[in-house]
């Protein structure tokens, strides 16, 4: 899918939000919340055009859509105050086989080019109701660094393993933590922090398989799946395996 000739991978989900994608052209972002490099830039910003298809489908009145983009294969990156916040304008332009990008605000500027632009997150929201909502966290990359710092503060030695593929990217990463007594591993820093929480809450001198379980544990894994079945299928399908 493309906007003004700029191809954005995995952008098909935007069809659930907008009946006419030309409404998004030119492709400008009005706010940059978070930027991460190594080996990509991750940019979260706001499209100020109301998501008409989403509003009609769910009977809501969202005024804007927040999106997250990953810019892969970064080159010629120039910036000042990379992590500063501020409203501004983010735009793309095509340059032969690569895509140029530019962000300008009162407190920051950033420009460069990239090999690929990928949509990795989209969420419609109404600013008024959103600000009044209870605080929340959800699993995403912008929590990775905080998760790793918590583990280090708790005395865990951290390491990372992974092999690059032919394209120069990592297909998978193994995030690891160890201390004098135990080793933890997760596919993401958030998973690794979850392993620590499980270890801290359930650690035992008994290191046999299943030490993390308790005889008093309810089977919440199964009951939640069954509840979801009742919502979507009006019955429990009973095709789940009880995992230990």
Structure description:
The chain is of the alpha+beta class and 244 residues long. The chain has 3 domains: 2-134, no CATH class; 143-212, Double Stranded RNA Binding Domain; 216-244, no CATH class. It contains 5 helices and 13 strands. The chain has helices at 52-58, 127-132, 144-153, 189-202, 220-233; strands spanning 2-3, 6-9, 29-32, 41-47, 64-72, 75-80, 86-95, 98-105, 109-114, 116-125, 157-164, 170-178, 183-186. It has a 5-stranded mixed sheet. Strand 11 (157-164) and strand 12 (170-178) form a beta hairpin. Helix 3 (144-153) runs parallel beside helix 4 (189-202). It is globular, with a radius of gyration of 22 Å. The mean pLDDT is 80.
> How far from one another are the termini?
43 Å
Largest sheet: 5 strands, mixed
* Average of the residue pLDDT scores: 80
Rg result? 22 Å
The percent range for strand residues is 35-45%
The geometry reads as: globular
> What is the helix fraction of residues, given as a range?
10-25%
Q: How many β-strand runs? A: 13
Which spans of ≥5 residues are poorly predicted at pLDDT below 50? none
What structural class should be given to the helix and strand makeup?
Answer: alpha+beta
SSE topology string: EEEEHEEEEEEHHEEEHH
List its traits.
single chain, 244 residues, alpha+beta, Double Stranded RNA Binding Domain, 3 domains, five-stranded mixed beta sheet, five-stranded antiparallel beta sheet, 36% strand, globular
